[in-house]
Design brief:
The chain is of the alpha/beta class and 255 residues long. It has 10 helices and 8 strands. 36% of the residues lie in helices and 18% in strands. It has an 8-stranded mixed sheet, sandwiched between helices. Helix 4 packs parallel to helix 5, helix 4 runs parallel beside helix 10 and helix 6 packs parallel to helix 7. The N and C termini lie far apart (39 Å).
């Protein structure tokens, strides 16, 4: 590690739990971030600032004026441009020494299968169940830890799903793909900007802990944030051994 790196990351290196070794692991790691919107914005900025060596971001959307109330990686001048290019420009401004790979594409199953296989951690910042389940499926298949978050109105939640841990549930254990969930969008119901930022920052927090080797993680815990009360609640979650993705009914070993 060069002197400039020791200076840039000195406040992390000073932490006993992090140190030079933790920074070296972070600098040598590859993070995949799915979604460059409200959740993805703080995730991408904090991962870049922390010196994650390679960051791939995937999103097929463009910056819209209505995004700017909460998607802090983007600026008014970027309206109409792709979100991944807009975010990548901000990230390079923060840290020009890392590799940033913006991919303006839909996160479909085939694309995710290829990208997840190359990553050390995946941070799901998408806004719909179909993408979350596709991300989860790829993470289980390739045994890559997943940090998944969601936010709507004044409510947010996140957890870590790590199939390297035999006791860890996957996203589908909590939200089965064949179950009926109401798909809620902020374009219809609204979302309080700082709630999205709170969940995104915590996603970055958990991702960096995983990359640096800091334990424990949120595996087995669903963290829920109530922005009205400014309060957190936790729910213990366990693996569903009949889960269609990671349990005995899954076809993971056949993929």
């Amino acid at each position: 590690m060069e002197d400039q790196d020791l200076l840039r990351y000195s406040r992390h290196i000073l932490l006993e739990e992090f140190g030079v070794d933790g920074q070296a692991r972070v600098s040598a790691s590859h993070a995949l971030v799915v979604g460059a919107g409200g959740l993805g914005s703080p995730v991408l900025l904090y991962l870049a600032a922390a010196g994650v060596g390679r960051i791939t971001l995937i999103d097929d959307d463009e910056v819209d004026l209505t995004n700017l109330q909460r998607q802090v990686a983007h600026a008014t001048s970027g309206v109409g441009s792709s979100k991944v290019d807009s975010a990548a420009e901000r990230m390079r401004g923060i840290n020009p020494d890392i590799v940033i790979e913006p991919l303006c594409a839909r996160a479909d199953a085939a694309t995710l299968d290829s990208l997840v296989a190359q990553a050390d951690v995946v941070v799901d910042c998408s806004d719909n169940f179909a993408t979350r389940h596709a991300v989860n499926l790829a993470c289980v298949a390739h045994a890559v830890p997943l940090v998944s978050g969601a936010a709507i109105r004044f409510d947010g939640q996140l957890s870590v799903y790590d199939s390297r841990d035999p006791a860890s549930p996957c996203y589908a254990c909590l939200f089965p793909p064949d179950a009926k969930f109401e798909e809620t969008r902020c374009a219809v119901l609204g979302v309080f900007g700082p709630v999205v930022g709170t969940i995104g920052v915590l996603q970055a927090h958990e991702a960096l802990k995983l990359l640096a080797g800091i334990q424990p993680s949120l595996v087995g815990t669903l963290l829920m944030f109530d922005g009205r009360r400014t309060a957190f609640d936790t729910l213990r979650v366990t693996r569903d051994h009949d889960c269609a993705v990671c349990g005995s009914r899954s076809a993971t070993t056949d993929r």
